[in-house]
UniProtKB/TrEMBL annotation:
Transmembrane segments: none annotated. Keywords: ATP-binding, Lipid biosynthesis, Lipid metabolism, Lyase, Nucleotide-binding, Steroid biosynthesis, Steroid metabolism, Sterol biosynthesis, Sterol metabolism. This is Diphosphomevalonate decarboxylase. Pfam families: MDD_C (PF18376), MVD-like_N (PF22700). Residues 195-348 form the Mvd1 C-terminal domain. One of its GO terms (molecular function) is ATP binding. It comes from Pichia sorbitophila (strain ATCC MYA-4447 / BCRC 22081 / CBS 7064 / NBRC 10061 / NRRL Y-12695) (Hybrid yeast). Residues 10-180 form the Diphosphomevalonate decarboxylase-like N-terminal domain. It comes from the Eukaryota. GO terms for biological process: isopentenyl diphosphate biosynthetic process, mevalonate pathway; sterol biosynthetic process. The lineage of its organism: Eukaryota, Fungi, Dikarya, Ascomycota, Saccharomycotina. GO terms for cellular component: cytosol. Its EC number is 4.1.1.33.
């Protein structure tokens, strides 16, 4: 019997308006809408190849050359949804090979450390879901497919698009309206650059799902954030992207990173993702912006100490120069101080 194959590459996306909190853990439905920027394919990405054959005995997954059993409920949920869509096609067209019944062999590779606050699960689930949707030749658009990636890891739904992406929280209980949509392509704002400052590639202390559950259950500040702060900030950030207003975009990005880490600190027991080096970076960026009398650089931190700095190309020398000047003597860097990144034009 034949072997059917397909592959996909998905880059990491870094949220500028953070997703933090689930209203449904199984469906990965968020408590707020979020916005992110997808990085370049050439930088941090997952490449996934899939093969289906009736000769295979079971589904298998090799992650970074290591055979892993497919035990995770989230991976199982994604595979089940994709098979269901394929089965619907097969039921309508009897001459299609019954790929929905064939076991899958999946080979996935990251070019960056897994689970270190570098959004590895986002790129991982996005590449997995897109590779299988290609193998199955599913006709659904990327927003539809993003609902499946979302069940793997919430933020994964945003890695299906390049450029500037929104994940709409939706309000239907079945999650059918909670999906990713493009705000603008990378070409819309080609001057935008990102630098990632790798402080540590250790696995994160508190996994994001555990952290979110704890925040939702115990933080009073969180209620204010999701009801009052994020809905307003979502509209403002979207406009700042469409208007290419870096000062506004940068301010909102920094404020939202701080707000996310504040609700982590307000959780009980508190969750700490930032370390002393992260805090030095925050101060340094504020000092730089003050010296320039304008916001020319913006930091953001996910569930780990590593920083992502956004800036426009015209300010690259100033921003990277300042980081090198002030940080090269600071201990705690993993290897390279700064990896400069471009944005991607194609998230899949
Ligand atoms: O998708 P998850 O479960 O890895 O959660 C991601 C959470 C943050 O990275 C902190 C924020 C975000 O919106 O990506």
């Amino acid at each position: 019997m034949g072997v059917y194959t397909a592959s996909a590459t998905a880059p990491v996306n870094i949220a500028t308006l953070k997703y933090w909190g689930k209203r449904d853990k199984k469906l990965n439905l968020p408590t707020n809408s979020s916005i992110s920027v997808t990085l370049s394919q050439a930088d941090l990405r997952t490449h996934t190849s899939v093969a289906a054959s009736s000769d295979f005995h079971e589904d298998k997954l090799w992650l970074n050359d290591k055979l892993e059993s497919i035990k995770s409920e989230r991976t199982i949920a994604c595979l089940a949804d994709l098979r269901k869509l394929r089965k619907e096609m097969e039921d309508q067209k009897s001459d299609l090979p019954p790929l929905s019944t064939y076991p899958l062999h999946i080979v996935s590779e990251n070019n960056f450390p897994t689970a270190a606050g570098l959004a590895s699960s986002a790129a991982g689930f996005a590449a997995l879901v897109v590779a299988i949707s290609r193998l199955y030749q599913l006709p659904q658009d990327m927003s539809e497919i993003s609902k499946i990636a979302r069940k793997g890891s919430g933020s994964a739904c945003r890695s299906l698009f390049g450029g500037y992406v929104a994940w709409i929280m939706g309000d239907l209980e079945n999650g059918e309206d909670s999906k990713a949509v493009e705000i603008a392509s990378a070409e819309h704002w080609p001057e935008m650059k990102a630098a990632i400052l790798v402080i540590s590639d250790d696995k994160k202390d508190t996994p994001s799902t555990t952290g979110m559950q704890s925040t939702v259950a115990s933080s009073d500040l969180f209620q204010w954030r999701v009801k009052e702060v994020v809905p307003r900030r979502f509209e403002e950030m979207k406009s700042s992207i469409l208007e290419k207003d870096f000062a506004k975009f940068g301010e909102l990005t920094m404020k939202d990173s701080n707000s996310f880490h504040a609700v982590c600190l307000d959780s009980y027991p508190p969750i700490f993702y930032l370390n002393d080096t992260s805090k030095k970076i925050i101060k340094l960026i504020h000092n730089l912006n003050e010296t320039e009398n304008a916001i020319i650089a913006a930091y953001t931190f996910d569930a780990g100490p590593n920083a992502v700095i956004y800036y426009e190309e015209k300010n690259e020398k100033k921003v990277l120069g300042s980081l090198y000047e002030h940080l090269s003597s600071v201990s705690g860097w993993k290897d390279s101080l700064v990896n400069e990144l471009n944005l991607t034009s194609d998230g899949s």
